[in-house]
Amino acid sequence: MGHRDRRKSRILELAQNVEICPPMLTMVGSYNYGLVALSVLISIIASYAALDLAGRVTSARGRTRLLWLTCGATAMGIGIWSMHYIGMLAFHLPIPVQYDWPTVLVSLVAAIFASGVALFVVSRRQMGLSQALVGSFFMGAGIAAMHYLGMAAMRLPATHSYSPALVTLSVVLAIVISFVALWLTFHFRGETAALGWMKITSALVMGAAIPVMHYTGMAAAGFAPSSSVDQHL
Q1: Which of 17, 85, 125, 179 shows a CA-CA span of 20 to 30 A to 186?
Q2: Which of 13-22, 99-108, 142-151 is least confident?
């Protein structure tokens, strides 16, 4: 056998021994639809509370106004944040998931900030288009920050990546939904009836719209198991 033949045989032998790595698996998550429904219900309740609180902030003066604004932003922010985390808990992966609580608390601060901006804008005597646009931008950015900070708080034996298109869509939705929420809240804040139909309708619209952003953001994330998990899948 010549040198060339021996070299060719050696190359074939090495090729047969090469272990071809399988493509990275993408884990498929599932949802607990009972918790999904609960997250939407909480979003509607938080939206109704925001409509009610906006009227109280508008009618208050001085330190009382600041107190109502602070308490209202906190209550509304906790409501939006609760919807978000119940939606997170509704999502199940075939691996254990834990959360980094300092990061979780930062996401709560982002939700309260977004709510504070919203209540400040809608409690003014007048709200022009430019004020509504600026307010919806900051409110939407706060909601998006809350969501992705919450995603960053996940601790799991996997790597995750995002679809840039869906991330962009989720942020745009957050801003658009914020604009609609500000418009509805500003125009219906003066309704004094405890269960006025306009207030209920607005809460239903806002409450159904906010989870759309959340679940779009969830759909933007893809999870792939780490090598240690791969061996058990």
Answers
A1: 85
A2: 13-22
Place of tokens 């790597």: 159
Rounded to whole angstroms, how far apart are CA atoms 132 and 20?
56
- Count CB atoms within 10 A of the CB of residue 42: 22
The HSE-up count of residue 149 (CA atoms within 13 Å, CB side) is 18
Secondary structure string (H, E, C) spanning the chain: CCHHHHHHHHHHHHHHHCCCCCCCCCECCEECHHHHHHHHHHHHHHHHHHHHHHHHHHHCCHHHHHHHHHHHHHHHHHHHHHHHHHHHHCEECCCCCEECHHHHHHHHHHHHHHHHHHHHHHCCCCCCHHHHHHHHHHHHHHHHHHHHHHHHCEECCEEEEECHHHHHHHHHHHHHHHHHHHHHHHHHCCCCCCCCHHHHHHHHHHHHHHHHHHHHHHHCEEEEECHHHHCCC
The C-alpha angle with vertex 194 and arms to 188 and 198, in degrees rounded to 5, equals: 35
Q: Which two tokens stand for residue 43?
A: 């979003």
* Rounded Cα distance, 170 and 227, in Å: 30
Return the structure tokens found at 17: 């021994």
Distance CA 126, CA 115 (A): 18
Q: For the residues 117-121, what does the mean pLDDT come to? A: 83
As to burial, measured by CB atoms within 10 angstroms (0-12 exposed, 13-18 middle, 19+ buried), residue 229 is: middle
Tell which wins on pLDDT, 14 or 37: 37
- Residue 91: strand pairing partners: 31
Q: Does the pLDDT of residue 153 top 50, yes or no? A: yes
